[in-house]
Amino acid sequence: MLSGATIAEVGADIFERLIAVASGRPSLSEAQGIGEDEFNPWILGATM
User: Fold this and answer.
1) Distance in angstroms (rounded) separating the CA atoms of residues 14 and 6
2) Inter-residue contact 17 to 8 (CB < 8 Å)
3) Neighbours of 39 (CB within 10 A)
């Protein structure tokens, strides 16, 4: 949107990328080999 794209264009781009990754295309971090080392903001396992 900062480059002059409309909200509809940006939304369509995000949707297309989402479908591509859901269909098996590697995400950018997976393509760079760091997909397993991403920041994980939630705690895995039981919490009290």
Assistant:
1) 12
2) no
3) 4
Q: Which residues contact 27 (CB under 8 A, 6 or more apart)?
A: 21, 35
Distance, CA of 28 to CA of 38 (rounded, Å): 11
Measured between alpha carbons, how far is 10 from 25 in angstroms, rounded to an integer?
19
pLDDT tens string, the chain, 48 residues long: the values are: 678 899 999 999 999 999 999 999 998 888 888 866 666 677 677 766
| Domain residue spans of the chain | 7-32
CA dihedral (5, 2, 16, 28) positive or negative: positive
- In whole angstroms, give the CA distance from residue 16 to residue 1: 16
